[in-house]
Design a protein that fits this description.
Layout lengths: L1 H18 L5 H9 L25 H4 L4 E3 H6 L10 E5 L14 E6 H5 L8 H15 L3 H16 L4 H16 L4
Antiparallel strand pairs: 1-3, 2-3
């Protein structure tokens, strides 16, 4: 125990020696030399409380984007492993479009809702639905094929996915501007 106390005392002496080289005013002197570019009253060390405004902010800025390209939605973390479970739904169906899978317009949907869409699955009805979309797209009627999905979603889920559909339509506008659809 005496050895431990001796080592502690020795360490304390070394700390005092090191501390004697410390000049707490040096930082302040250095800071005062750099004031010519600073605004009057500006203190870089002062912590400023973030102002919060409880008024309603622009909804577009605050909400998560739920529609756009399939890739962007997948990269944002939407999918079966998201909470709650979501799936990314191509609009129109991926197999009906010539766009690469990642570039296809899409929205996020609750997993159960996605399974109820007309284009989802391998039933005869779903296959016929996708064939009709493909036919419209081949005729240059991409928006009509897309409208089939919008109408289907509205019929089954009301306005639940309207924000996602709006985001997706903004993306379709971009695809049209680029001449891709």
């Amino acid at each position: 125990m005496i050895e431990a106390l001796a080592k502690a005392a020795e360490g304390l002496e070394k700390a005092k020696e090191t501390k004697s080289n410390f000049d707490p005013d040096k930082k302040l002197e250095k800071k005062s030399l750099n004031t010519e570019n600073q605004q009057e009253g500006y203190d870089p060390d002062k912590k400023v409380a973030k102002e919060t405004d409880n008024s309603q902010q622009d909804v577009k800025e605050t909400k998560e984007k739920r529609g756009g390209s399939y890739k962007d939605l997948k990269d944002a973390g939407f999918g079966e492993n998201s909470e709650p479970p979501q799936e990314v739904h191509h609009m129109p169906a991926d197999s009906a479009s010539d766009l690469p899978r990642d570039d296809g317009p899409a929205i996020t949907m609750d997993k159960e809702d996605h399974r109820e869409t007309a284009s989802c699955g391998n039933s005869k009805e779903a296959q016929e639905y996708r064939a009709k979309q493909k036919e419209l797209i081949e005729q240059g009627k991409f928006r009509e094929a897309l409208q089939m999905d919008i109408d289907d979603i509205h019929e089954k889920f009301g306005d639940k996915y309207d924000d996602a559909i709006k985001d997706m339509l903004d993306y379709v506008d971009k695809l049209e501007e680029e001449g891709r659809v």
